[in-house]
Amino acid sequence: MIPSDSDRQVIDPRHFVSDHGRDALADLVARESGYIFQLRPLKDLCQSLKSGMPLLAEGERGGGKTEMVDALAYACNRPYFELQGMDGLKLNDILFEWDEQGQNNFVLQAVSSKELSLEEARQQQWRKDFLTLGEVLKAYDYLATTGIVPIVKLDEFEKLPQVCQAFFYQLFTDGHASIPRLSEHHGHIGVGKSDDKPIVILTSNNQHVVHAPLRSRCIYTKVRLPTDLEEARILHSRVPSAPASLLTQVVKVVRYIRVMMPTVRDKPGLRESIAFLKALITEQIQVVTAEVIDDHLGFIARGADDLTNLELGLPRLERAAHTPDTVAEQMIHNIFSEAAVRLREAA
Q1: Where do runs of H (alpha helix) occur along 77-133?
Q2: pLDDT for res 63
Q3: Which domain holds residue 281?
Q4: pTM for the complete prediction?
C-alpha cells in the first residue's frame, strides 16, 4: 500500500464529484497531476464513483489507462493499493492465506504452557491474527477497519486466468470475501453491503479476455488513443516548461513514426512522448535533429527491430520535425494561448 501524504490535503473523490461535479474533478486532477481526462472515461469514472461499482477501463496501450488511476490517486491523495496482472498469481496474492507456521507455533505454545487445552488452542488458531491478506482484500479490510476509502488499481487485469478472475466476484458483489474456518466477523473480511467500498479500477489492453461475469459487476469505459490535439494538451500539461517550438517538433516526430513508418510495429504511445519531451527539457535541447533523436531513441523504441528501423529513418524524422505544418503549429499556438488566459484568470 502507498499511504496518503500527510503534508497534502486528502480528498474523497466520491464526495467531491457529488458536491462539485465531474468537470471540477477533471480540473482538480489536471491541476495536481497534469493528467487530462477524455470525456467518455471521465463520465464513466464519475458513475463508478457514485455507484460504488468498479470501473473496467479498456483500450490500446498508450491511451493513458494506467495514468488515469495513478493521477486520480495522487490528485486526491488517497491510500493506494495495486495488483499487477500476470501469470502465476494465486489466491494468496489476491485474497488471503493462513499462516500455518504461526498457527502451529501458537497451538504448541498454548498447550505446552497449559494456558489452553488442545481443543481450545485449535479453535483459536483460526483467528484473523493468523490470516495474511492479499493486496486486494487488504484494501477492503483497510476500509472496514479505518473508515478511509482507498483506491485499488488492478492493472492489465486481462492477464489473470479465469480462475483468478473468479476470486473477485464476491468482493465486487457483496463487498467481502468468505473465509472458511475464520472464527471472527461471521467468517467474512471486507465492508459487506455498505455504500462505502474501495474505489476499484481495472485496466485491460484486450476487451475479449476479461470474462462476462466480471464485466457484469463493473462500470465499463473505453480509453482510446488521444487525438493530436488531446496529446498536445497532455504534453503541455505534463511538461509545462517545454516551449511551443519544442513541443511542436516532438508532436511532428511522434506523429510521423505512427503514420508514416509502418515498419515500426510497436508505435510510441503517450508515455513515450512524455518521457522523450521531458528528457529534451532536462538536457536543455531546443532543436530536434537526427543526432538528438538518435541519442534519445531508447525513449521511443520498444524492440530491437523497431530500434533498427528508427535508426534507418533518422534523416526523415529530422525533416518531419521541421517541415511546416500550419495545422499543428496553430493547434499548439492555441493551446499555449488558452493556458496563458487561464493563468491570468487565476491570478
Answers
A1: 91-94, 100-112, 118-124
A2: 85
A3: 228-346
A4: 0.87
Q: Residue 202 forms beta bridges with which residues? A: 56, 154
Which pLDDT score, from 0 to 100, does residue 347 have? 63
- Give the residue among 281, 283, 280 at the shortest CA–CA distance from 300: 280
Which sign, positive or negative, has the C-alpha torsion 338, 283, 273, 293? positive
* b/e 128-158 (16+ beta carbons within 10 angstroms → b): eebbebbbbbbbbbbbbeeeebbbbbbbbbb
pLDDT tens-digit map of 264-314 = 999 998 889 999 999 999 999 999 999 999 999 999 999 999 999 999 999
Per DSSP (E only), the strands in 14-140 are 55-58, 80-84, 96-98, 131-133
Residues 46 and 68 sit within 8 Å (Cβ to Cβ): no
> Could you tell me which residues come within 8 angstroms of residue 344 by beta carbon, excluding any fewer than 6 positions away?
none
pLDDT at 207 over 60: no
Same domain, 162 and 71: yes
179 and 288 in a single domain? The answer is no
3-state helix, strand, coil in the chain (%, to 5): 55, 10, 35
Number of independent structural domains in the chain: 2
